[in-house]
Write a structure and sequence with these properties.
homodimer; 331 residues; mainly alpha; Annexin V, domain 1; 20 helices; annexin (chains A, B); metal-binding (chains A, B); calcium/phospholipid-binding (chains A, B); metal ion binding (chains A, B)
Chain lengths: 331, 331
């Protein structure tokens, strides 16, 4: 469930665009000083509060319309204007939030393929927490924007165990139905248990099951695993000393994304200095999806409401925009 | 280029459906014998010639419309009627031909995942000779028909080297543009040459390049390979004693599909007893795509026109339908 709040009635798109344009306006004011005839040139800056009050309270369809209308009216991409006018974490949050979801996934995935292995987590997230149709749309947006395929960049960027897991994950187009084959679930729970017992964590059958089965089927298999072998599979996977290879997070993303994102937030906020990259990503990407669940999970797990934790760790416009997206109406 | 011939003007769809219905009509005629009052019950069979004259000369859009109109008019799927009325190779040819291309790919792929490894070639063909968009539509048709994903069945069906190659091939959604990065082409030609020289035919880089790069990029890389290292890559790959693993055919399917299909036809026709399965598949699947090129290639390579070769090897309605699809107007 979304935490986004949208005013009722929503202002006309043209008004939103006009307000945004005003928010960006850089005006030169000529002031006479009292004591002399000299002029002081003042530069009025961007009105961040106005930007938050608009973009922080419009859903994906509305933002898309705003971006289209803004481009038609002022001959400039709204994202370019945001990029120019804003800075730092606030800029990244507003820009990520303003992107169309498929474009945003393509953008983040492309960025991830250019960075170090820690960014492999972002690729796994995109591959596993989107619906099959959304992942496909991200791959189409990737073609359109980068003139390459997502999987070729991921395959080129990764090696070894990351390669073995991430390439099939980002290439998957899982069946999206609820039907479950209980015989397959039993057989594959057994295979998973065997391979994990043999410490063959990177075995092709583990990858095959996680990367190709429908989410409903993976879930049935893991339920059977727990019933039959006593442990949650994630507990067993964590005995892998090399779990930097994302197999446990993959399982979590596929079956309990809200718990996965709670943990990302927890680590980002508890980190000395805050990991703004992760905080921004989770809030911008999940606000309209399941932020309400993530936020509830966060409070249960950390005994502090997410908004309080954010207020403690962040400041300024960045803080205000985060709060707007996680549901603060007054923000 | 297609070899299909369509009459001008095309008869109205309703007429085609009526004619097909007539072709299927099983009539009981009561005849008085001259010598007595007893009755002879005669069963009039299916009119195969009429079926060929219609379905053998309609393009994919027209056939789809015929199937829709037939179902609306007679409350029965045309494919079911064909299945019931026809037999053997002729049946399979007409049914494959009448299926919508994406459905047909899904059907053939599903069949292939249930058979022995020789059918892996069919999976490779589907993955490599369709456009990225067509492969995607086949995967969507697979979801709709089998309530599973193509890649999960392929991954489950294959093992070892086949698995390593086929899963990424069927999961790929390649970039479809013509842009080529010459630096990548040079670098990857070098990688291919190194791995082949080391006889590491199943190396993940070889698979990565073949399975994820756009066809234009693969082609540029292979051109560079030939320029730089002297041999056609296929010649080098063929020194692999285990080339049953389809790497050379994959290269051919990606870059010169008409040559690949010529070879499939050549082997099917030259085989003692004819491989009707392969013959049917190539004709039904390529008649509307590149059969003209395949047929020219066939004549160049075998010094006999394809139609003459088919006439020598096949008979009856099956022969007539094959000839219709490869462009015989009189058939």
């Amino acid at each position: 469930m979304s935490t986004l709040t949208v005013p009722q009635p929503v202002p006309p798109v043209a008004d939103d665009c006009e307000q945004l344009r005003k928010a960006f306006a850089v005006s030169l004011y000529l002031l006479h000083t009292a004591s002399s005839d000299s002029l002081i040139v003042c530069r009025w800056g961007t009105n961040e509060k106005l930007i938050i009050s608009i973009l922080g309270h419009r859903n994906a369809v509305q933002r898309k319309l705003i971006r289209q209308t803004y481009a038609e009216t002022y001959g400039e991409d709204l994202l370019k204007a945001l990029d120019r006018e804003l800075t730092n974490d606030f800029e990244r949050l507003v820009v990520l939030w303003s992107l169309d979801p498929a474009e945003r996934d393509a953008y983040l995935a492309n960025e991830a393929t250019k960075r170090w292995t820690s960014s492999n987590q972002v690729l796994m997230e995109i591959a596993c927490t989107r619906s099959p149709q959304q992942l496909l749309m991200a791959r189409q947006a990737y073609h359109a924007r980068y003139k390459k395929s997502l999987e070729e960049d991921v395959a080129h960027h990764t090696a070894g165990d990351f390669h073995k897991l991430l390439v099939p994950l980002v290439s998957s187009y899982r069946y999206d139905g609820d039907e479950v084959n209980m015989n397959v679930a039993k057989a594959e729970a057994k295979i998973l248990h065997e391979k994990i017992s043999e410490k063959a964590y990177g075995h092709e059958d583990i990858i095959r099951i996680l990367a190709t089965r429908s989410k409903a089927q993976v879930n049935a298999t893991l339920n059977h695993y727990k019933n039959e072998f006593g442990n949650d599979i994630n507990k067993d996977l964590k005995t892998d000393p090399k779990d930097e290879f994302l197999r446990a997070p993959t399982v979590k993303c596929l079956t309990r994304p809200e718990r996965y994102f709670e943990k990302v937030l927890r680590l980002a906020i508890n980190k000395r200095g805050t990991d703004e990259g992760a905080l921004t990503r989770v809030v911008a990407l999940r606000a309209e999806v399941d932020m309400k669940f993530i936020s509830e999970e966060y409070q249960r797990r950390n005994s502090i409401p997410l908004d309080r934790a954010i207020v403690k760790d962040t400041t300024g416009d960045y803080e205000k925009m985060l709060l707007a997206l996680i549901g603060h109406i007054e923000a």
